[in-house]
TrEMBL record:
Disulfide bridge map: C41-C46
InterPro entries documented for this protein: Class-I_Pyr_Nuc-Dis_Oxidored, FAD/NAD-bd_sf, FAD/NAD-binding_dom, FAD/NAD-linked_Rdtase_dimer_sf, Lipoamide_DH, Pyr_nuc-diS_OxRdtase, Pyr_nucl-diS_OxRdtase_dimer, Pyr_OxRdtase_I_AS
EC numbers for this chain: 1.8.1.4
One Gene Ontology CC term in the entry: cytoplasm
Organism: Camelimonas lactis
Family: Belongs to the class-I pyridine nucleotide-disulfide oxidoreductase family.
More info: The active site is a redox-active disulfide bond.
EC primary class: oxidoreductase
Keyword hit for Lyase: no
Protein name, UniProt field: Dihydrolipoyl dehydrogenase
Boundaries of every FAD/NAD(P)-binding domain copy: 3-328
Superkingdom of origin: Bacteria
Length: 466
């Protein structure tokens, strides 16, 4: 079988790349070793986690939020199998959607493990061991990432789980200990707390959400604590032993000191993800990887071996589905002789907790470090009419604009629906817009998004409602 392009991996980076390449007339195949398409994101990541985040949020609303609006529903009852069923149906609809899109775009799919045997040759090993070799002009590696293991804490996906196991628990743990106060820890910790678990998060650093704007992370931590999540910062887990009663963790101060034992019914290990290249044959064909195991690429997604490219979680950059998708589109366009492009300065990041946390561009700390002079405009949701009506006044919007040019360099939002609101900032930044541009754009009233405009007005100290 001979192709213009073979994509290895059908996650957001791979499947989107294949579709765009097929749209542009390239004869394209995808190799996927999972039984379903869509990668980590659709099968065990973005999609199932959001199904459980939404369902658990509804459960919490029914229990606490609705009464304050004058809606009495009595104590809600959890039907966990039904909630998990909703998650499974959501995943199925999405992964089947990708299969449909492959057919529609006449993309050949090969289920099996892909291995590059030479430039232009991908060997596919099916489950039963049968091997097929695909010949191709170009190969795109989009094999994604996998859970980062923690020494001394063996994941069994029952008592000591990764995100995958945490999406599958068959009962609500009495006490859940999360290792890592990053995105997964906070999202999945929130799910199980809402459903009744006592949740403690153990984090190595002295802050949560490293990489996010400091002020945003601090505010978020306060809000999570108010919801009942406990944080143990500046602490490291050095061992975990599962037994009949649960799990006993050994925890030490990050800086060193006396060890302590912490009990849990379930432990979620969420200390990051690492690039996945096992069995791909990279060493044999001489594809270079960096010190963290990421496939090394240039700014055209080319590896050091001609004809082999890489995109998504397996390469440098934030491990986000939309970053991978955009890289997939860019490389497909380049392979078809067009000018593919990703603007790495305007990639949003969203934590889908309640409230949501959304961010694009630089944080204050990054600007300070780079010596860039900036103005800050801030606006709290307590001063927004729609937020009051919705009882969603937690959080704020912060706009960071270049002091000399007023160009927006970063926008950070803590608030309900922050993940939807951030996109006007993304588009603004994509067009190199200023705080003044945002401030002069009419925003419908009453909307939460008015707070974004007010924060832009606040850059020039002329917000109306504070
Ligand atoms: P992947 O999605 O990991 O796909 C790679 C695919 O390649 C896999 O299907 C794998 O089976 C296949 N593969 C690997 N090796 C081979 C081989 N040799 N042969 C054949 N196939 C192979 N990101 C967001 O942007 N938003 C979110 O809300 C979000 N939520 C997440 C929640 C969780 C719990 C997790 C774990 C991740 C989440 N992410 C989220 C991150 C997101 O899932 C990843 O950034 C994204 O999936 C990366 O896409 P990818 O295509 O690079 O790789
Ligand atoms: P993460 O990198 O977001 O957070 C890991 C956390 O663990 C960090 O705070 C880190 O300091 C801490 N840590 C590391 N080693 C530790 C140790 N030994 N003990 C205690 N703490 C330790 O990684 P996470 O949450 O596992 O997520 C993995 C990736 O998946 C992220 O890169 C993220 O981008 C992606 N993802 C994205 C989501 C989204 O966009 N909403 C949702 C879930 C995951």
């Amino acid at each position: 079988m001979s192709y213009d392009l073979v994509v290895i991996g059908s996650g957001p980076a791979g499947y989107v790349c294949a579709i765009r390449a097929a749209q542009l007339g390239l004869k394209t195949a995808v190799v996927e070793k999972r039984k379903t398409f869509g990668g980590t994101c659709l099968n065990v990541g973005c999609i199932p986690s959001k199904a459980l985040l939404h369902a658990s949020e509804m459960f919490e609303e029914a229990g606490h939020g609705l009464a304050a609006l004058g809606v009495k529903v009595g104590a809600p009852e959890l039907d966990l199998p039904k909630m998990m069923g909703h998650k499974t149906d959501t995943v199925s609809a999405n992964v089947n959607g990708v299969a449909f899109l492959f057919k529609k775009n006449k993309i050949d799919s090969h289920i099996g493990a892909g291995r590059i045997t030479a430039p232009g040759k991908v060997e596919v090993t099916a489950e039963g061991g049968a091997k097929t070799t695909l010949e191709t002009k170009a190969i795109v590696i989009a094999t994604g990432s996998d859970v980062m293991p923690l020494k001394g804490v063996d994941i069994d996906e029952k008592r000591i789980v990764s995100s995958t196991g945490a999406l599958e628990l068959d009962k609500v743990p009495g006490r859940l200990v999360v290792i890592g106060a990053g995105v997964i820890g906070l999202e999945l910790g929130s799910v199980w707390r809402r459903l009744g678990a006592e949740v403690e998060v153990i984090e190595f650093l002295d802050r949560i959400l490293p990489g996010m704007d400091d002020e945003v992370a601090k505010q978020a931590q306060r809000l999570f604590q108010k919801q009942g999540v406990k944080f143990r910062l500046g602490a490291k887990v050095t061992g975990a032993k599962a037994n009949a009663k649960g799990v006993t963790l050994t925890v030490e101060p990050a800086a060193g000191g006396e060890a302590e034992q912490v009990q849990a019914d379930v432990v979620l290990v969420a200390i990051g993800r690492r690039p996945y290249t096992e069995g791909l044959g990279l060493q044999e064909v001489g594809v270079a990887v960096d010190e963290r195991g990421r496939v090394t690429i240039d700014d055209h997604y080319r590896t050091n071996v001609p004809g082999i490219y890489a995109v998504g979680d397996v390469v440098i950059g934030p491990m986000l589905a939309h970053k991978g998708e955009d890289e997939g589109i860019a490389i497909a366009e380049m392979l078809a002789g067009k000018a593919g492009h990703v603007n790495y300065d305007a990639i949003p990041a969203v934590v889908y907790t309640q409230p949501e946390i959304a961010s694009v561009g630089k944080t204050e700390e990054e600007l300070k470090k780079a010596g860039v002079e900036y103005n800050v405009g801030k606006f709290p949701f307590t001063a927004n009419g729609r937020a009051r009506a919705n009882l969603a006044t937690d959080g704020f919007v912060k706009v960071l604009a270049d002091k000399a040019t007023d160009r927006v360099l970063g926008v950070h939002i803590v608030g309900a629906n922050a993940g939807e609101m951030i996109h006007e900032a993304v588009v603004l930044m994509e067009f190199g817009g200023s705080a003044e541009d945002l401030a002069r754009s009419t925003h419908a009233h009453p909307t939460m998004s008015e707070a974004v405009r007010e924060a832009a007005l606040a850059v020039d100290k002329r917000a109306i409602h504070i």
